[in-house]
Amino acid sequence: MKTIMKKSGDQETKWYVVDAEGKRLGRVAEKVARVLRGKNKPEFLYHQDTGDYVIILNAAKADLSGNKRNAKFYYRHSGYPGGLTMESYDKMVQRKPTFPMEHAIKGMLPKGPLGRELFRHVKVYAGADHPHTAQKPETLEI
């Protein structure tokens, strides 16, 4: 068997736009991670970037099921004893409206250099406006 290697000039990349208003956070993140990775294409290669660019609008208005608005926490640690800080989803959305969506997508991408490169292809915005109209993004239904 031969390992398939696509050249960067051979790949076509598209731009998609997703409106996350009223949609479940995890379902949007899963669909976006799949498109970023390129798993929706027949020429998918697990070791190369074959994915597309995705713009997410209204990320702050994404929905969660059940009582997760108050029960879901984001943790960070300063590295010092007793330095654990936790913040609920509601407070995090008020402070950083795009963080929960970015955090969910980043967790679904591969870890390492490929995952970091793929994460640069997602643009998350809290509102309904974006500066990427020149790329002529297509609507991605979820």
Automatic annotation (TrEMBL):
Keyword Ribonucleoprotein included in the entry's annotation: yes
Highest taxon of the lineage: Bacteria
A Pfam cross-reference name: Ribosomal_L13
A biological-process GO annotation: translation
Gene3D superfamilies per UniProt: Ribosomal protein L13 (3.90.1180.10)
Record keywords: Ribonucleoprotein, Ribosomal protein
InterPro entries per the UniProt record, alphabetical: Ribosomal_uL13, Ribosomal_uL13_bac-type, Ribosomal_uL13_CS, Ribosomal_uL13_sf
Any one of the GO CC terms: cytosolic large ribosomal subunit
One example GO MF annotation: structural constituent of ribosome
Family: Belongs to the universal ribosomal protein uL13 family.
Record's subunit section: Part of the 50S ribosomal subunit.
Protein's recorded name: Large ribosomal subunit protein uL13
Native species: Sediminispirochaeta smaragdinae (strain DSM 11293 / JCM 15392 / SEBR 4228) (Spirochaeta smaragdinae)
Lineage: Bacteria, Pseudomonadati, Spirochaetota, Spirochaetia, Spirochaetales
Gene this protein is translated from: rplM
